Amino acid sequence: MPELLLELFSEEIPARMQARAADDLAKAVTEALGTLSPREVRPFSGPRRIGLVAVVAAETTASASSERGPRVGAPEAALAGFLKKHGAAREQLREDGGYWVLEKSSPAVAASALVAEAMPGVIRRLSWPKSMRWGGTSSFAWVRPLRRIVCALDGAVVPFSLAEDDDDGQGLVASNVTEGHRFHGAGPLTITGYAEYTARLREHRVILDAAERRAAIAAGVERLAASVGCTVAGDPGLYDEVAGLVEWPVPLLGRIDDAFMDLPDRVRQLTMRLNQKYFTLLSADGSAAPYFVVVANIEASDGGKAIVAGNERVLRARLSDARFFWDQDRKQRLDSRLPKLEAVTFHAKLGTQGARVLRLVRLAGIVAPKVGADIAKAERAAMLAKADLVTGMVGEFPELQGYMGRRYAAHDGEDEAVSAAIEQHYAPAGQGDNVPSAPVSVAVALADRLDTLAGFFAADERPTGSGDPFALRRAALGLIRLIRENGLRLDLIALFDAALAAYEGVLDFDGPKRTALVDDLFGFVIERLRVQLRGEGRRHDVVEASLAGGKDGDLVRLLARADALAALLGTEDGANLVTAHKRASNILRIEEKKDGHGYAEAPDPALLREPAEVALAAALDSAQPEIASRVAAEDFSGAMAAIGRLRPPVDAFFDGVTVNATETVLRANRLRLLSRIRAVTAGVADFSLLAESSVLKG
């Protein structure tokens, strides 16, 4: 089968866009050439090119088919519509059984013809986060000026032009000519197939494969770090980014001026990473080392000495700017900056950061005693939590919010618990982040998320299926992790109500709407909890079943109840009891609908005639108070064990008793007994909400 090679060669493509664009191109080409059955499709990407290599069929398969149209004698409009749909002429029709029939045939099409026809549209439609036009009046837009197109099928050029209608497509025509490295390359390169293409690019200092470039960068950076007794600060994202910046990576070791080594570590590291794409090195003891590694894109004749010297000079200037912010910010106490927060908008509907800080102080004071935190310290930390947003350093590097606040607070002599909470209240920001455990930090972190969720829900700025612009799902997951990983016994329902109370008078909602918002907020958190449990491979349907036993804002207690239920379902008694419960519920639902009323009344002992129904009633009488007392004591395993002991009498009842007896009073009494099964078990969970597949798996 022929090999298809496609390369789109341009000016430098932003690193963050390369891999996605190559994958999108591969998908688009695969779809456009579907009749050629593309396989072994391998996309590639780099600073100045994206493309793919694939194997395709030599031609499409010829086919023939018949399409029945309108009846003979049908309105002319119907016949015209049929012909238009199939792009056919009336002369191609024949009569068959009173209908017009179109004989359709598709001859085999050579792969080269199909590729030439499809590629201009594929390239024009390729989507980029940002595009540009250049030169002339062409409407063709791409991420950066596109300079060449290589398209070869088994080594032969597939010529096509990007011209379309009156648009010349920048005059670009496919060929078999590409270019190597911008500085080390020796002019245009004529290629045939993929093997020669990659080999010649390497000769001209281009490593085509992004993974190979990344590996070369990592190996070079680690080798240089080891040469000075250091290790590399973990930064996988920077390896990926630099692999998208260089075609021929040449790592070089530079030194940081000792005058800047007293800057906070993250300030120095962020300055090097964001502005210069340098790798940070650590000494053997884990402290910051006075070295960095820069990855050049050329092999310099002097071994890189001039490049290193230039980068050291640039770094000194960058770090001098950071030094200025660091020194200037510390001349003013953090609490003196609070009035400036009144000029910073948090959200158009939710007011300023200053107003938000007052809400955080109030909430932190409410949460603090519930998590064992000192109230005064929690309120002080909440008051200062956002003050570093108006510092020079955070204005330059927003990524340092919290981190700088902690250091400025410590410089001002604030209590260590207060300073730590200013930084830690942002955690966890992502799945891999550690959760704060210090009580003051936990109190402020909870207050921050409670206020965020309550405010945006009240402002009707909720996540949708297509977006979550205010990261509310992340806020809810952070709230859950703070509670679960610290084992906090909190009533989330009451806390959401307290958070919403601060917005009355700011947002338009009355008492009933506030109650509805609390329900919505709690439901949103529970849905995130289900997602988290599913990700952990744990039972998640049991959460909903456990909630049906009564809305419980204590997630720790709710999860303990859910875990006990999951354990019960893992036993034979539990699985069979759920099946029996569902059977009872189904019978009740049908009969209640038929009769037009429920059967919630207690069964009449005098009407219990069969031994099995007498035994079941007795078992329920015994189980109900035990279940209630164990639930009250939060002994959910004991409560589930009591429910599990109902299995034999319930099974015996269904085996030996006819519920729909011919005698009306007996039938009604037995339906009341079934209703009692449902009522007794509902004190712990609603078994009808359990997924069937989960019950069977246990």
Instruction: Please name the CATH topology of the largest domain.
Output: Hypothetical protein af1432
The count of strands amounts to: 16
In percent, how helical is the residue content? 40-55%
Rg calculated over all Cα atoms:
35 Å
Descriptive labels:
Alpha-Beta Plaits, flat, 16 strands, 698 residues, 25 helices, alpha+beta, four-stranded antiparallel beta sheet
Could you walk me through the main structural features you see in this protein, from its secondary elements to its overall organization?
- This protein has 698 residues and is of the alpha+beta class.
- It folds into 5 domains: 3-59 and 111-203; 63-106, Alpha-Beta Plaits, CATH 3.30.70; 211-329, no CATH class; 344-537, Hypothetical protein af1432 (Orthogonal Bundle), CATH 1.10.3210; 564-697, Orthogonal Bundle (Isoleucyl-tRNA Synthetase, Domain 1), CATH 1.10.730.
- Helices cover 50% and strands 12% of the residues.
- It contains 25 helices and 16 strands.
- A 5-stranded antiparallel beta sheet has the order 2-3-1-7-8, covered by helices on one side.
- α13 (416-424) runs parallel beside α14, α18 (541-547) packs across α19 and α21 (611-632) packs parallel to α24.
- The longest helix has 25 residues, at 305-329.
- The two termini are 51 Å apart.
- The model is unreliable at 693-698 (pLDDT under 50).
